Amino acid sequence: MAILAEVVIDQVAPGLDRPFTYVVPDTFEEQVALGQWVEVPFGSRVLHGVITQLAAGDPAEGTKAIHAIVDRKPVVTPVLLEMAQWLSGRYLCYVSQALRSMVPASVRRRQSARPKMVWYRVVGARSGRPSTKQAMFEFVRDHGPVDRRTLLDQFNNAQQALRALVAEEALEVLTDPPQSPLPQEALHQLTAAQQAVLQTMESEPGRAWLLEGVTGSGKTEVYLALIEARVAAGRQALVLLPEIALTPQVLLRFRERFGTRVAVWHSGLGHGERRLIWEAVRDGRVSVVVGARSAVFLPFPRLGAIVVDEEHEPSYKQEEHPRYHAREAALWRGKREGVTVVLGSATPSVETRFWAEQGAIGHLRLPERAMGRSLPAVELVDMREELQKGNRQMFSHALTTALDEVLRRGEQAILFLNRRGYSTFVLCRACGQALQCPDCAVSLTYHQRDNRLVCHYCLKEQPLPKRCPECGSDKIRYFGAGTERVADEVGRLFPGTRVIRADRDTLTRPDDYAELYQNFLSGQADVLVGTQMIAKGMDFPRVTLVGVVAADTALHLPDYRAAERTFQLLVQAGGRSGRGDQAGRVVIQTYNPDHYAIFHAYRHDYAAFYQEEISFREQAHYPPYSDLWLLVLEGSEESDVKARADGVYRDLRAVWPNGEILGPAPAPLARIRGQYRYHLLLKSTHNDDLAVVLRTLQSQHRGVSITRDPYFLM
User: Fold this and answer.
1) Apex CA 373: angle with CA 371 and CA 375, to 5°?
2) Is the pLDDT of residue 282 over 60?
């Protein structure tokens, strides 16, 4: 008898999507364990893999032996091994792809863990005129010890100032993580409503909850109190945020509460930092992880709670393999490990609210803002009436007046438009031709600052032509508005107003958002103009006006979630107003004031919106009343792509004769980067029979992309 190990090879290929059996040599029998990273012979090569099963048995003839145990400590916990199998079955990825999501490349490749993580603490006195260096010293004095990444994030990568403070011996460098003392009792007094929510959670430990709270209701304080109790009991906690870079305030509050016991996990980490944090989590040296979606796969040995903040955000859905949804993964892990899971949002996804209504998860509410603050007053402006009155500008009379009042009082405003650029398309008025990207079936967007046309899908740029490339006319005009034009309009109407833009064109570096946030918070600008990124998790006390320039931008997209996304964006954007001592106001401009998504957002009425939306979903058999599967085929020749799509349809219909299949048809974005695209959309009942069918189909038709519960139907 020998010990046999089942090993999943770290290779992504159809023939390798199964475990392979190896003999554990006698010299390794005392060391071998599930989840270890091992080196094994595979044909003529030597590859790496993860041990997924161990058993005693007689090896078949020719069974090879494990060459080496690369890491004595398992890189994947037993729970994560189960999770990899679940991901593979649910999202049709290879088990090796799931495991790669759980084990960072720096761990798989045994890359050096340098640069070493360091912390700074105050050791001397210092005073001086206001400067970055003085502000950095005071920050460490007030919050220290502080790790290097936090300092550089907070002060826009001011490495020279940091080096100077160390040279002056005002700060001391620590190479071992200082231990913050745990608070003996809550540092912040919860409101009665927050306390009631927390007590209900604690009365049923291990349950999943929807925490539905209006913007500014104090959901984060509930998260902090829950996690504080878990950490005091020696457990760990995971907090998922949609996009770490866009939520600096939330991150800072966790660091203030838990100090150096907090680690941050996101895609911007270097290989060395990623490995250090991963090992600290695995070894139990980190109490709280605040991270983006992939943090759900970290190897916590003592997990006690999971929080998914802004659970409705689409960025929790991964578009590449494994195409998982972090909310679903968090719920699976919470149930498997018996820990409390909190899904928080002011505008819950329809699916989550449905699960709560059905009793699958608990439902808790915070219906009022904390500190006695009221929700902002909302004004709905019908832009059709503005046109009838002769106003053809992008700002209505109501929004212009509101902006004028706010600026006169020395307060701040946010203007929201979910379109980048200056003009959304450029048209020849002689022949009617819109200038399109040569590789994508989309119009080019005009960016005035660079005087260039940009495709927002393939990022190809070209100079603005003086004449139409189709007919030669010089009657080229700009139509539609983006954030760049909105910022220009503010400057035209209110000369001298300080305006900051926040979109993917202006925020290109990882530290750009933190810098913008600090600048606006400190009053260095009067108006912030931005896309949907400014609707996420920001708290500016001096903002008393939010203007939604065009509420209809996403309303008529060919996507069943269009109404839901519109409602969520309007409520979340409006929720940035009136979060300080002054009352807030929201002005929503629309050409569809009677649409239920816009009307209910105007009334802050999530329940009414949900009732209309869930009725539509039931009638159309969309989630949560079905599972949706999106099949995408791409290629350089449209006729070939269509023929392949027809072949997939025929084979699918043969084994799924009564299933609901839409298509095949050209995708709404029929060509991207020179590739023609065809879609098939499948609706199935809530079982995994179709998953088995599609896995077989996937092996028969190479190059078919399959996404379960897609968030991008274009």
Assistant:
1) 140
2) yes
Q: How many Å from the N-terminal Cα to the C-terminal Cα in the chain?
A: 56
* Cα–Cα distance, 252 to 268 (Å, whole number): 17
Calculate Rg over the CA atoms of the chain: 27
Domain of 650 in residue numbering reads as 627-708
Annotated binding residues for Zn(2+)? 428, 431, 437, 440, 455, 458, 468, 471
- The mean-pLDDT minimum among 89-98, 481-490, 492-501, 614-623 falls in 481-490
Pair (278, 225) in one structural domain: yes
**Structure tokens given for 466:** 């003086």
The mean per-residue pLDDT over the stretch 371-393 comes to: 88
| Predicted pLDDT at 307 | 98
Give per-residue pLDDT as tens, 655-669. 998 889 998 999 988
Query: Omega before 438 cis (within 30°)?
Result: no
pLDDT tens track for 126-182? 776 667 778 888 888 877 678 777 777 777 667 778 888 888 778 777 655 555 444
Both tokens of residue 674?
């020179």
The three-state secondary structure class of 499 is: strand
How far, in whole angstroms, is CA 534 from its chain's centroid?
A: 14
Tokens at 286, concatenated: 């980190």
State how far the Cα of 354 lies from the Cα of 565, in Å rounded to an integer. 16
The torsion angle over the Cα atoms of residues 651, 655, 660 and 665, rounded to 10 degrees, is 0
Kindly state whether residues 326 and 201 are assigned to the same domain.
yes
Helix, strand, coil tally for the chain in percent (to 5): 35, 25, 40
Quick: pLDDT tens for 552-609. Answer: 888 877 788 999 999 998 998 888 887 777 888 999 999 999 999 999 999 999 999 9
- Least Cα distance to 578 among 541, 604, 549 occurs for 541
> Which residue stretches of 540-671 are H helix?
562-574, 596-602, 606-620, 638-655
Whether 511 and 573 map to the same domain: the answer is: yes
What DSSP letter does each residue of 132-198 carry, written as one string?
A: HHHHHHHHHHHH-SEEHHHHHHHTTT-HHHHHHHHHTTSEEEESSPPPPPPPSS-SSPPPHHHHHHH
Report whether pLDDT(184) > 60.
no
Structure tokens at 288: 């709280």
Tell whether omega for the bond before 301 is within 30 degrees of 0, i.e. cis: no
Our count of domains for the chain comes to 6
109 DSSP assignment: T
- Feature table: binding site: 428, 431, 437, 440, 455, 458, 468, 471
Pairing of β 585-590 and β 543-548: parallel
CATH of the domain at 212: 3.40.50.300
Q: What is the CATH number of the domain that holds 79?
A: 3.40.1440.60
Q: Which helix H or strand E contains 236, and what residues bound it? A: strand 236-240
Do 315 and 389 have their domain in common? no
Adjacent-strand bridge partners of 172: 121
Per-residue model confidence as pLDDT tens digits over 101-119: 999 888 887 644 444 566 7
Residues 396 and 535 in one domain: yes
In a domain, 184, yes or no: no
The pTM (predicted TM-score) of the whole model is 0.85
Q: If we measure between CA atoms, which residue out of 124, 128, 129 comes closest to residue 140? A: 124
pLDDT (mean) for 66-87:
94
User: Please, which contacts does 613-620 make with residues 24 or more away whose CB atoms are closer than 8 Å?
Assistant: 613/350, 613/563, 613/564, 613/567, 614/350, 614/353, 614/354, 616/563, 617/350, 617/560, 620/560
